[in-house]
Design brief:
The protein contains two helices and 16 strands. The relative contact order is 0.19.
Length: about 260
């Protein structure tokens, strides 16, 4: 029992170290992109009332996973799966229709591990996959609070799973496939103005979506059977970073025609 507890503690510490390492890399990428933006011609066109905003973010993607796992169509009692939490760089593009209404596109790339949980926990990592998870939200921004601008949003997220692998493959699968998925997203955030179009951003999104994971031709029976996991992913997405706001007209040489939206 002592050995088991020690092993668990060591694993937890290793997991925290991995998350911290990934967070450091995400912030390094964030700083690099922000430096490039700061040295670009956009730096002289910043406007706190501009109609377009770009953000670079350090983002935590934390799936809240619940799965039903079947082998050959029969439910495996107590079997579940867990999708890893990842820290990644991300970006958003926001267009303001007026001072309150805006539409935002969020995107990034991330690689996640899928581990057995519950009755199949001894299998360890049973798949890994890259995801492309753009989210589109319609936002309402609350104004009149000085440099503080909170907002809420709602929309949809699409997740494309690609380059999916078998992980440690203790199921003996020949391959793994994951169905792409759509989900409903809610959002809340805060921009803190720094002047000249720059701002700090803090944002949280919650998406509800489900997918199906299939391990093909596993070694669980003669001739191979498919193992299928019906999974609710329901990720939380936490972001923090730097935003830059400007008038699109100024980029295309129409400064004289650009009008502030608030």
């Amino acid at each position: 029992m002592v050995e088991v507890i020690a092993s668990q503690v060591a694993g937890d510490n290793q997991g925290r170290g991995t998350i911290m390492s990934k967070m450091a890399k995400a912030f390094a990428a964030l700083g690099l992109v922000a430096s490039i933006v700061g040295m670009s011609p956009l730096a002289v066109a910043g406007s706190d009332d501009g109609n377009f905003q770009v953000r670079v973010l350090a983002t935590v993607v934390d799936p809240d996973t619940d799965a039903t796992v079947k082998a050959g169509g029969v439910v495996i009692p107590g079997a579940d799966a867990d999708v890893s939490t990842e820290v990644i760089p991300a970006t958003t593009l926001t267009y303001f229709f007026n001072k309150n209404l805006a539409v935002e596109l969020f995107c990034c790339f991330a690689k996640h591990d899928i581990d057995g949980k519950g009755a199949i926990a001894p299998l360890g990592e049973i798949a890994d996959t890259w995801i492309f998870p753009p989210a589109l939200t319609l936002q309402y921004h609350f104004t009149g609070m000085g440099r503080w601008e909170p907002y809420v949003g709602a929309g949809v997220q699409y997740i494309d799973f690609f380059d999916t692998g078998t992980g440690q493959n203790r199921l003996g699968a020949t391959s793994v496939s994951i169905d792409d998925s759509w989900g409903f997203t809610l959002q809340a955030g805060l921009d803190v103005g720094l002047g000249n179009g720059w701002s700090l951003n803090f944002d949280v999104k919650k998406t509800w979506l489900d997918t199906t994971v299939t391990w093909h031709n596993t070694a669980l029976a003669p001739g191979g059977v498919n193992v299928v996991g019906d999974a609710d992913l329901d990720p939380w997405i936490f972001s923090a970073g730097l935003g830059y706001r400007f008038d699109l007209g100024s980029i295309f040489g129409h400064r004289a025609e650009a009008a502030p939206i608030k």
